[in-house]
Amino acid sequence: MVCPGRKRALLKIASVLFGSAGLAMAASVAPQAAVAQEPSVGVPPKPPVTWIASPHFDDRPPGTGIDTILLHDTETPGISLARTIASHFANPRSGVSAHFIIGKGGEIVQCVPEEKRAFHAGPSLFRGRERVNDFSLGIELVNAQTGRDPFTAPQYASLGSLVRHLAARFAIPRDRIVGHHDVTNRPGVKRDPAINFDWDRFLASLGPDPAAEARRQVVENREARRLRPM
Ligand SMILES: [Zn+2]
After folding, report:
1. Residue 71 and residue 176 in one domain
2. CA of 15 to the centre of ligand 1 (A)
3. 58 φ, ψ to 5°?
4. Ligand 1 mean position to 37 CA, how many Å?
5. What are the φ/ψ torsions at residue 71 (nearest 5 degrees)?
6. 66 alpha carbon to ligand 1 midpoint, in Å?
7. Over the chain, what HEC string results?
8. Is position 211 within any domain?
9. Same-domain pairing of 11 and 62
10. Is there a contact between 40 and 64 (Cβ–Cβ < 8 Å)?
11. What is the pLDDT along the chain (230 residues), one digit of tens a residue?
12. Do 61 and 83 share a domain, yes or no?
């Protein structure tokens, strides 16, 4: 619950910062903004985003946390700007959205608050759980999906900084950062991100995997105990 005075202040701030799109976004999400998860110590800062709000979102099922990041590409030949895709997500008739879109120039547009459920995965199944939208964040990379259209260096850079932030903020393990083609329950229908997306380059940009580091530490400690002279 947000008191009217606080809500008015939020609307004013959103209006100044983001114009009418921010105003619409704040008006629709202000009640939740007060309970949004606060980034904790050690979380890399969120990179700058431009808000172009989509109406296509709703609440996640009660008690459902965010534990997966799903990468997509837009399958849009000839388009380079994230805002072009965002205007489609903002269209009341499109029925689709994602939390973030990253354009060829590296600009990041946010369309749906992280805490809300965006409509990006469609019918989907990941490790025995259906409806991946329920528990994931969706990131769209602007790309033609031909397998030859390059994902650009600015896209990799922005994706890396965004995912470093999100993975730390929501404690998402490295093995739950996956592509749409990994979770579709219609094999062969969804192929994104395209085959020329460089997973090694992207994952390397995230730095050391905290979970893998913790496992390595356990093994090393066990080894050290084993070798300790009695
Ligand atoms: Zn997709």
Report:
1. yes
2. 31
3. -155, -170
4. 26
5. -95, 140
6. 18
7. CCCHHHHHHHHHHHHHHHHHHHHHHHHHHHHHHCCCCCCCCCCCCCCCCEECCCCCEECCCCCCCCCEEEEEECCCCCCCCHHHHHHHHHCCCCCCCCCEEECCCCCEEECCCCCCEECCCCCEEECCEECHHHHEEEEEECCCCCCCCCCCHHHHHHHHHHHHHHHHHCCCCHHHEEEHHHHECCCCCCCCCCCCCCHHHHHHHCCCCHHHHHHHHHHHHHHHHHHCCC
8. yes
9. no
10. no
11. 333 344 444 333 333 333 344 434 433 443 333 334 555 678 999 999 999 999 999 999 999 999 999 999 999 999 999 999 999 999 999 999 999 999 999 999 999 999 999 999 999 999 999 999 999 999 999 999 999 999 999 999 999 999 999 999 999 999 999 999 999 887 778 899 999 999 999 999 999 887 777 777 888 888 888 777 65
12. yes
Q: Give the contacts of 119 (CB within 8 A, at least 6 positions apart).
A: 56, 57, 95, 96, 97, 133
CA torsion angle 206 208 212 216 (round to 10): 170
Q: What is the reported pTM? A: 0.78
For the beta carbon of residue 188, count every other beta carbon within 10 angstroms. Answer: 7
- Provide the domain limits for residue 27: 1-35
Q: Looking at the 3D structure of the chain, how many domains does it have? A: 2
Q: Could you tell me if residue 135 is inside a domain?
A: yes
Q: Is residue 40 part of a domain?
A: no
Question: Which residues are known catalytic residues?
Answer: 140
Contact 14, 25 (CB under 8 A): yes
31 CA from centroid of ligand 1 (Å): 30
Contact 113, 49 (CB under 8 A): no
